[in-house]
Amino acid sequence: MGRLIVISNRVGQPDDTRGASVGGLAMALGAALREYNGIWFGWSGRTVETFTGQLSVQRGQGATIATVDLEEQDRDEYYNGYANRTLWPLFHYRIDLSAYERSFNEGYARVNARFAQTVVPLLEPDDFIWVHDYHLIPLARELRRLGVKNRIGFFLHIPWPARRLFATLPLHRELVEAVFDYDLVGFQSRDSLSAFEDYVRGEVGGEIDADGIAQAFGRRVRLGVFPIGLDAEAFMAAAQGAAAAAWRERMRVSLAGRRMIIGVDRLDYSKGLEERFLAYEEYLTNTPEALEQVFLLQIATPSRDEVEAYQEIRARLDAVTGRINGAFATPDWVPIRYVNRAYRRDELAGIYSMAAIGLVTPLRDGMNLVAKEYVAAQPPDDPGVLILSQFAGAAEQMEEALIVNPFSREEVSDAIEAGLSMPRDERVRRWESLIEGVRRHDVAAWRDAFVEALLAAPCAPADPLATAVP
């Protein structure tokens, strides 16, 4: 059996001794890399004047981290441009924010080709390759052009958009054709898989058989749904640690007898924060007895500050929170505590555990692990209530949450009222079902399911249709 080669835009640090601050994905992939004596390759995050393809390699505990520097133009056109100003908004159904510029597409193609050229010398014939996310959709095509015959799988962490939306992308057909150079393509949800299948059938006249094999462009690729999970046991253990306990005590004092609603998101227009604040305002307006008895703590970590759309959403959120607090606040209470900074995962576990409601209402999301973190942090004897957007991938797995349409202020407002008034026995029943799913479908199960499916896929033959896919 060969090594696992993980390729992503940025690499994680699976051996980071900070422990609780390491993300679940890095921990899961780190375990797989150690098992298969593998390599994790990606961009260093640094830029240089001229691209050289020189690798920086770190080895430790059975896994190797390899990174490469890009040019400033690469970062502007590939990362800030095509990835985050073209694909990200489009895939999250914000066609109004998508920027289609030829230089962005050229930078995207150039960096994918550079990734392929840089990683090929690291590959051995028996290696199997796992490519991650929308930054690197054409990478398999570039690797095949360089003669790579290894098994290559791709996993999309974000949603795949509906057929007609995706068709607004210039050169959309060429991008999907590049998908067919993979042996396995995984999606977070059935909704995303169905959207991709609809495009293949409707736009390029392809076929999908009963086994999930898509055929188009003279090639075949296996499709599947692999919903990502939480590192559940590790997160639950962190929720019992010293940092979480310290934050529980801080929040207990800060609550002052009130009840807390918690939202934790990256500051992004796809997360529906403005709609969430307006729905909460609706709740306060319709429920005057809740004034001074409840507050919303929204932790929104800034990101992608160089992209104009992110500057605009931050300004709007500042204005909305200021208006709502100005209208409802009293000398010793504000309805929204709005925080723009990041917290460690073990600290968040302590904060989650004190919240009567977890408000997870993205307008569109591939999965959303905050929903699963909130459930994992709850005290079993008195858990809070998860309110979850129907447009998050997690909604397909977490049916015992209060599922809402995040575009409806009234619906979210009603769910807040229902959650805060829900009897303990119903909260416990719902939580027990949710936590069982969080534990069973954890990040290790996701990783193992994808790797097993990829290992079962055939190596790409010289004539892709000459060998049937089993």
SSE blueprint:
Blueprint: E1 4-10, H1 24-35, E2 39-48, E3 55-60, E4 63-71, H2 72-91, H3 102-119, E5 128-132, H4 139-145, E6 151-155, H5 163-166, H6 172-179, E7 184-187, H7 190-204, E8 207-208, E9 213-216, E10 219-225, H8 232-238, H9 242-255, E11 259-266, H10 273-286, E12 294-301, H11 308-328, E13 336-339, H12 345-352, E14 357-360, H13 370-377, E15 385-389, E16 402-404, H14 409-421, H15 424-440, H16 443-456
Parallel strand pairs: 1-2, 1-5, 2-4, 5-6, 6-7, 7-10, 11-12, 11-14, 12-13, 14-15, 15-16
Antiparallel strand pairs: 3-4, 8-9, 9-10
Helix pairs in contact: 1-16, 2-3, 3-4, 9-12, 10-11, 10-14
Characterise this structure.
By secondary structure, this protein is an alpha/beta fold. It has two domains: 4-229 and 445-456, 3-Layer(aba) Sandwich (Rossmann fold); 233-440, Glycogen Phosphorylase B (Rossmann fold), CATH 3.40.50.2000. Helix content is 43%, strand content 19%. The chain contains 16 helices and 16 strands. It has helices at 24-35, 72-91, 102-119, 139-145, 163-166, 172-179, 190-204, 232-238, 242-255, 273-286, 308-328, 345-352, 370-377, 409-421, 424-440, 443-456, and strands at residues 4-10, 39-48, 55-60, 63-71, 128-132, 151-155, 184-187, 207-208, 213-216, 219-225, 259-266, 294-301, 336-339, 357-360, 385-389, 402-404. The chain has a ten-stranded mixed β-sheet, with helices on both faces. α10 (273-286) links the parallel β11 (259-266) and β12. α1 (24-35) crosses α16, α3 packs across α4 (139-145) and α10 (273-286) packs parallel to α11. The longest helix has 21 residues, at 308-328. The protein is globular. The two termini are 20 Å apart.
